[in-house]
Amino acid sequence: MALTGRGWMVGLAAAGVAVGLGIGASLPAQSEVDVDHPVPVSALTTTTLESPSPDCGRLTAEDLALSASCTETFSTRYVLEGVAGEVTLPVTGSHAHIGVFVEDETAQTTLLTPTGGRLPMESVPRDVDPGTALSRAEEAPHGKVEATPRELATQPGIYRLRLEGRERGDDAKAAAPRATVVVNDDNDLVLHSWLTDNLVDARQTTEIHAQVREGGKPVEKVRATARIYHENGTLVLERAMTGLGDGDFGLKIRPLQLGRFGKVILDVEGVTAAGMPFRRTGLLEIASGVAGGRLMRIVGERLTDQGLEVDLEYVVTRAGRFHARANLVTSDGKPVAWAQAAAEAAVGRHILTLRFDRRVLASGKLLLRDLELTDVTEFPGVKSPTRIGTYALEQALQ
Fold first, then answer.
1. Out of 37-46, 156-165, 256-265, which region has the weakest mean confidence (pLDDT)?
2. Burial 126-147 (b: 16+ CB within 10 A, else e)
3. Pairing relation of β-strands 97-102 and 144-147?
4. What is the DSSP string of 23-80?
């Protein structure tokens, strides 16, 4: 879906803040390795919170796709901040909507078409979002919002926005008005941005990706920059993203210095297949923290009259509540079932049991995958920094 509403401006308001502490970008995370001193299973504490029936269900293809923990957004917009004087605005769609926020209410805004004609602008109440995410009443005590009429058709090409302030003698240049401009260039040229992992343990790597698609096909002639902010609005890092092929641009970071809810603003420029310049802006939120538990290994599997049970060993370094979830698929990857369990656990080693109802099981060899342990003691929950890959269930199904 396209990015809309106030959420945009929360992240964008931080622009212009001086660069703060850097983070290790584009470097692989050094995984913390737990020395696994095996403990007899009989000595471990089973902490699964009991329920009347197994907490599980049939797994759909859509559920399986979502289990990748990939947070993604789609945007046909772009944002320009701190605009002064005259600026060019590339438009590729026939129904682009252009909005301008100027803190100086006396400033004059002129918008010119590619052929030099003047586009009409309408005044928009500050407490109403005109659809261009320019409702900034909470962020600036003064100012005005103007936008092009929604029904107005636009000709693809380069538009020009001119800002002029009221003459104030010798101070005219110093008082030049500045504006934030948002263009919803609504067509099939879409910025797809995603995080490979969200709610990640801050000691681990997460990857930021950006790809522009035109008519569903990747656009190769693109430059992408990521601006990463702490939850308090401080700019932590600004860096060009690396081309990975097939129109994909990526950047690896460890979100150690972003607080609980960091933000990523993606600024993308490029040229369409027809040679038309374009811009796009994307927004992602990174939720992170340090998990108080680590997933260690699978220590048991059995088939009962009720269904399939899988025991997970995990280590707790900070007492709290923990949640585990996993998917069950066939040997060729078809979805079968999902199961989850929760536990209150003290510091130490414990077992959490996932139970799959017999009625949702499929015949043949089954694989356990997408297994994750999340510390849900506080919001948002944080995933264990250690994972277990695809696991073949063999003993229980023999």
1. 37-46
2. beebbbbbbbbeeeeeebbbbb
3. antiparallel
4. --TTS---PPPPP-----GGGSEE-BPP-SS--EEEPPHHHHHHTT--EEEEE-EEEE
Cα(300)–Cα(311) distance, integer angstroms: 5
User: 180 φ, ψ to 5°?
Assistant: -110, 130
Give the whole-angstrom CA distance, residue 119 versus residue 151: 12
CB 287 within 8 A of CB 383: no
Distance CA 33, CA 296 (A): 10
196 vs 155: CA distance, rounded Å: 37
Instruction: Quote the tokens at residue 181.
Output: 């401009």
Structure tokens that stand for 12 in this block? 């964008």
Q: Tell me the C-alpha distance between 358 and 352, whole Å.
A: 19
Which residues are registered as beta bridge partners of 195? 71, 208
Q: What local confidence, expressed as pLDDT, does residue 68 receive?
A: 57
Q: Please, which pLDDT band fits residue 396 given cuts at 50, 70 and 90?
A: low
Find where tokens 């690396």 sit.
242
Q: Give the tens place of pLDDT for each residue, 139-194.
A: 666 788 899 998 889 999 999 999 988 765 555 455 688 899 999 998 999 999 99
Q: What percent of the chain is predicted at pLDDT more than 90? A: 47
At residue 32, the pLDDT reads 33
Compute CA 216 distance to the chain's CA centroid, rounded to the nearest angstrom. 20
Q: Which position has the token pair 């939850």?
A: 231
What pLDDT band is residue 327 in, cutting at 50, 70 and 90?
very high
| Measured distance CA(362)–CA(206) in Å, rounded | 34
**pTM, full prediction:** 0.71
Element (H, E) at 215: none
Instruction: Give the separation between CA 292 and CA 382, rounded to whole angstroms.
Output: 8
Closest CA to 325 of 291, 368, 377: 368
CA angle, 206 as apex, 203 and 209 as ends, to 5°?
A: 165
Token pair listed for 110 = 């002129």
Tokens encoding 249 = 């641009």
Query: CB of 397 within 8 A of CB of 365?
Result: yes
